[in-house]
Amino acid sequence: MEIFKLKPAGKDYLWGGTRLREEYGKNIDLMPLAETWECSVHPDGLSRIQSGTHKGKALAEVLEQHPEYLGTKVSNNELPILVKFIDAKKDLSVQVHPDDEYAREHEGDNGKTEMWYVIDAEEGASLIYGFKHKVTKEILRKAVETGTLDKHLQKVEVHKGDIYYVPAGTVHGIGAGILVAEIQESSNVTYRVYDYDRVDKSGNKRELHFDKAVQVMNMDIASGVNQKPRMVKYYPGCSRELLCRCKYFEAERIQVTKGFSFSVLDSSFQVLMCLDGYGQVETIDADSKPMRFSKGETLFLPAGIGKCLVIGEATILKVRC
Asked: 173 near 218, Cβ under 8 Å?
């Protein structure tokens, strides 16, 4: 059984920048480069394997052939998460995602609950997270029509290392100057509420989805935005910090100074995203070669691969179900 190094799909949304190419080594011929879908089996952006026996194949194809790589906790033999890097040079639209029930009935896709880890943020950068006060459909429609939606939205100043858990139904928008690692359900359903009257490359305004958005959004005052105290556990060679645990995924930040060991059990695959630094992953399998990685690279570790050892100096996000 092998560890897979992944090659992402790229997205050139109009709000994107150049940092993923210039700082994270993403050799993708898109301008701007707004997102890289690092670990994805979603048909709108398939990541591929760029190492070993399955080199060149889509991750979705390999997992279809080997559903045991997903683990016993995963139902429907389908990778339940999608992992991204996001470079917001400009503000994203004000948007909302539906929950699973609504998305499956109306879009034939999963809902989208997500988590953001702020890799970097310009001084004074902010994001939108829910409403400052309770609103109604009528209030929101008038605000969108008159360009005054901003007065109802809660804006939060963002700093490097912040985390935000964004349940389905939360109105949100990543602001300009923020670089994010996003862990989400495997979904591509987004309802735009407002897009600042911007136009695309063809000079057309992007479509809004107000009527669907108001059916799925939480119109109460947003809670749970403030950064909570987080416990860091220190070990010889590394520190580990649980960032988020929900019904869809669990994410940890690992600061490797020399090395750390962990096990990938039969219950779930794991994904490693290198945010900074470099290193290699070794397994106890004598036939398996160490997998080297560096800043910006993402690895998929099949369920049941066993005990692993990471050696190097790196900041890593470790994700599992």
From this structure: no
**DSSP for residue 53:** G
Report cis status (omega within 30 of 0) of the bond before 32.
yes
The answer to whether residue 21 is catalytic is no
Query: Which residue in 199, 175, 4 sits closest to 87, CA to CA?
Result: 175
Question: pLDDT digits over 92-149, tens only?
Answer: 999 999 999 999 999 999 999 999 999 999 999 999 999 999 999 999 999 999 999 9
Residue 286 pLDDT exceeds 70: no
Distance CA 11, CA 30 (A): 7
Catalytic pick among 21, 48, 192, 240: 192
Domains and CATH numbers, the chain: 4-216 (2.60.120.10), 232-320 (2.60.120.10)
**Per-residue CA distances from 240 to 185, 231, 257 (Å):** 23, 9, 11
What is the pTM assigned to this prediction?
0.96
Instruction: State the Cα–Cα distance between residues 174 and 127, nearest whole angstrom.
Output: 5
Residue 316 pLDDT greater than 90, yes or no: yes
- The residue written with tokens 């690279």 in the block is 297
Angle at the Cα of 304 from the Cα atoms of 299 and 310, rounded to 5 degrees: 45
